[in-house]
Fold:
Amino acid sequence: MDLRHLRYFIAVAEEENIGRAAARLHISQPPLTRQIQQLEEELGVRLFTRTPRGMELTQAGELFLEEARNIRSVVEQATERTQRAGQGKLGRLDIAIFGSGILGIIPRLLLAFRTAYPEVKIVLHTMTKAEQIEALRQRRITLGFNRMLAPLPDLATELVATEQLLVAINESHPLAREESVSFPMLAEHPMVLFPTGARPNFIDKVMRLCEEAGFVPQVSQEVGDAVTGVALVAGGFGICLVPESVTALTLPGVVFRPLHDTPPNCRIDLSCLYRADDQSPILTEFLETVRAFHGAHVAGHSPGIQTETVWDAGI
Amino acid sequence: MDLRHLRYFIAVAEEENIGRAAARLHISQPPLTRQIQQLEEELGVRLFTRTPRGMELTQAGELFLEEARNIRSVVEQATERTQRAGQGKLGRLDIAIFGSGILGIIPRLLLAFRTAYPEVKIVLHTMTKAEQIEALRQRRITLGFNRMLAPLPDLATELVATEQLLVAINESHPLAREESVSFPMLAEHPMVLFPTGARPNFIDKVMRLCEEAGFVPQVSQEVGDAVTGVALVAGGFGICLVPESVTALTLPGVVFRPLHDTPPNCRIDLSCLYRADDQSPILTEFLETVRAFHGAHVAGHSPGIQTETVWDAGI
DNA sequence: GCAACACAATACCTTGAAGGTATGGAGGTT
DNA sequence: AACCTCCATACCTTCAAGGTATTGTGTTGC
Structure:
């Protein structure tokens, strides 16, 4: 049996006349007669009674008509769903984020994608950079968000945003009195660094910037992520350099101050990481969203807009 | 798209290798390659990624695999159900019964059929003989139970059972004292007759029998059906001749007495009526059941068995 | 009652697509 | 570098779907 048989059967059942049904199907009458005979023979069931006025469904034929219509609609839905899946509009996207990645820009990006592709189920996984690379290689995730990415042969990156660096300072700290701080002012103040883990990382960036400013930072503590770092600032462990998205985290007693006279490289990239060989349409659509979002973000947040922001985390 | 495409797709998806899938399908590799390409092209969706190790499903392919398996099982179920319908094992049977037909043998027959063909839905309609004939012609019913059927050109009959005639008597009536009665004893006693309606009917039969016994009955009342007739006997309207199946109806004050020295034609047929041109397998199977039932009934209830029965309706 | 009609079935031919054989080409392995 | 394992392509064969012409069988209309 064939989908053609079903199409023909439905036409004959509806027209109750082989000639008219053949016209509707744009074929001639004899082949249609044969196809119907074939179908009946294959099922071993008489579907029609032949009358001088045409073809009349038997009871078994009535039942088969319902079934045939049902099959047709199931097939239609299947192709339609598969096509949407092929266009990246239906399916599942496994994304890795890092510890404090849930702050700032990523949620807005995910929301934008979810709005554009409501039938794609986004599954979030919290992973370190090394875990992300491993999971991408094993195809357990499709994409990871990270910072400070060294080029890798089989993985590609897409820049999501570049963020300004801020200093997280305890409100009782002398530097908290400044509207903004400069790099040399950070010398001599004990500093919390993050994250521990695979190099190169944010710590290397901070060390290099301090070096360029002519001093070696006093490291009071190294921690795993930005959230812990800011918590230690709240606890009086020292100051901590953080990307601006961390200001989404409000902890009592912590204020954030911008860095003035910053060198041009005193910004930190947020990128996403994916398999260079991944052709999946959902990934393609997601990267498209990332690019659009990045463009809008750069355009919308032109130089100076950050001065509007209140850096104090408040209570 | 074709059911063949689905079969081939499932094989390739399961084997993850065109060569092995082709072997499983008993075709060679190149046509299978082409069929898969065709399917992808028709859907406009890449279902597989070609790797050096074989064929790997894309996300859209995974979804289509589920859909394809689903379609396959829907098609299988449809053919299976249609085949059962074609064998008369699945479907609907519209049967007409007459007023008091629900008494006696018909329920047992219906129960036997229902047990043998549990998936055939029996729908009962109460109709007079004339209504049955009309409904059969319009195909609103497939079969009707009736008595006293005159042969009709387009309708066929099948004998279900022949029943003895009994006399329903009010317990205070003089005849109630007899163990059994003979036809001449009925003369002079007012008699209730049924049914009014299309001739020939049971009334004609009773009139003829009385005539053969040498008297003309005193008709006290004509009513529509046996139930009403027996109710009038209970009310003292007179005696009433009924087929034995009416004894299933117990009314206070009514006793039933057999007729002894009855002529051989003093029995009444219960037949079923159906379209002579009806080829429906369900009807065929039902008639088969009727014949088996009739045979067993005749064999099981050999002469004399009725003497065991208590004719008093009791309270 | 005969002719005309309407419908499905049959006979025979044509064509297109599925299937087969042989071979190419790309990526990985020994 | 040679070989192996895949899938893809080229080209041929065959079978079945589709077309045309015709038959056969009931029904309708004059």
Q: What stands out?
A: Chain B touches chain A at residues 1-4, 43-47, 49, 58-60, 63-64, 67-68, 70-71, 74-75, 77-79, 81-83, 85-86, 90-92, 279-282 (CB under 8 Å). The longest helix of chain B spans residues 59-86. Confidence is low (pLDDT under 50) at residues 300-315 of chain B. The domain at 91-160+269-306 of chain B is CATH 3.40.190.10 (D-Maltodextrin-Binding Protein; domain 2).
